[in-house]
Each structure stands twice: as C-alpha cells, then as structure tokens.
C-alpha cells in the first residue's frame, strides 16, 4: 500500500459516469474488504460516499467528488473469500 498503490492506480475517470460504471463503483464501496471512498469532511453519521451518474455523494453532507479509479469501473472487486471456480 502507500506509494506503490498510488503508482499502480493513477488512471482516473471523471464523472459523468454510465449506469454500469456507477453500479460497479457502488459494489466496490459496499464489498466490505476494500476501503471505501469517504467524505473529506469530519462529521457524525455515515461518510461512505455513494456513486451516482454525476459523481460521488456523501449521504450525510453536501460533499461531492467527481473522479474515481479507472480499475473500479471495469467490474466488481475480486472476492478473496470466493473459492468456487
Ligand atoms: Zn460528508
């Protein structure tokens, strides 16, 4: 993690995103084993961002973010717990 991770995932895609991209982004956010994007503001309540066609939205405050990693758009995250072929 750290600097190596940053170098491997430099490709960013700006909103607006397609419905399919939004679906994939939200799968990454909710999968539970990848650290989700979170709101930059410090406040009570959920800070896990929710993807929409026009970008990320904080569920609790007006914060938005309009970029995501390109690798997150290509499909749901690999599941390390899924051992079926
Ligand atoms: Zn927030």
Explained architecture:
The N and C termini lie far apart (28 Å). The protein is 26% helix and 16% strand. It has a three-stranded antiparallel β-sheet with strand order 2-3-4. It is of the alpha+beta class and 85 residues long. The chain has a domain at 17-73. It has helices spanning 3-8, 19-30, 70-73, and strands spanning 12-14, 50-52, 55-57, 64-65, 67-69. Bound molecules: zinc ion. Zinc ion (ZN) is lined by residues 39, 41, 43, 47, 58, 60-61, 63.
Protein traits:
85 residues; alpha+beta; 5 strands; two-stranded antiparallel sheet; 3 helices; globular; three-stranded antiparallel β-sheet; binds zinc ion
Task: List the topology elements.
Elements: H1 3-8, E1 12-14, H2 19-30, E2 50-52, E3 55-57, E4 64-65, E5 67-69, H3 70-73
Antiparallel strand pairs: 1-5, 2-3, 3-4
This protein binds zinc ion.
Summarize the structure.
The protein is α+β, with helices and mostly antiparallel strands. The protein contains three helices and five strands. Zinc ion binds at residues 39, 41, 43, 47, 58, 60-61, 63.
Low-confidence stretches: none
Output the radius of gyration: 13 Å
Q: How many strand elements?
A: 5
Could you give the distance between the termini? Answer: 28 Å
Helix- and strand-based class?
alpha+beta
Please report the number of helical segments: 3
Strand order, sheet with most strands = 2-3-4
**DSSP strand content:** 15-25%
Indicate the mean pLDDT: 85
Bound small molecules, which ones? zinc ion
Helix fraction bin = 25-40%
What profile does the largest beta sheet have? 3 strands, antiparallel
Shape: globular
Helix and strand string, N-terminal first?
A: HEHEEEEH
């Amino acid at each position: 993690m750290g600097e190596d991770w940053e170098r491997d995932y430099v490709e960013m895609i700006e909103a607006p995103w397609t419905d399919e991209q939004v679906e994939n982004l939200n799968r990454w956010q909710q999968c539970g084993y990848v650290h989700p994007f979170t709101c930059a503001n410090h406040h009570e309540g959920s800070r896990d961002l929710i993807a929409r066609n026009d970008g990320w939205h904080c569920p609790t405050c007006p914060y938005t973010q309009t970029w995501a990693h390109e690798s997150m758009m290509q499909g749901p995250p690999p599941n390390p717990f899924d051992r079926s072929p």
